[in-house]
User: What shape does this take?
Amino acid sequence: MVERCGWEGQAPDYVAYHDTEWGVPEYDPRALWEKLILDGFQAGLSWITILRKREAFRAAFAGFDPIVVATWGEADVQRLLGDPGIIRHRGKIEATITNARAYLEVNAAVGFDKFLWNYVDGRPLQTNFSSRDQVPPKTTLSEQVSKDLRAKGFKFVGPTIVYAFMEASGLVNDHITPCFRHADCAAMGRRTDSAQ
Assistant: This one.
């Protein structure tokens, strides 16, 4: 029997997410922004809720194109508040528009991918937790990244959200050591241009 982290439960879509996506290092700046936004929407909810609505989110938010989303205003907020396919939370919707603008500034200045990967010197942090009980909800590093994102104008990027984002995006490999994905994700880490 294949051993996994344990949080993914039995739902096939959740297991597939764990087995193929969670913890895989992501280097595409736009994909990183999408993951950060979705983790913000997850605040107070379970990830499976967001995962099952991900395609609806992509449709509602123009494929998570920050150039498009950055131009939106109150009419778009109202449209999104009426969309039953997504989480209809005004603060999170408004934060997404704000975050699109902040993303464009950071990406133009240094590259959103480089901005994030520089925190880990261009390589995923490798943890060696043997059980999920050992995995922290946040770290000193996620607190710093959160603080720096907020300073750049991002919203819904508290340290716990940021840590979940770092795990999902592979900046930190928090698959527990008995999980078959721990070694796989460790092997995927590569040094990025930003840290060379």
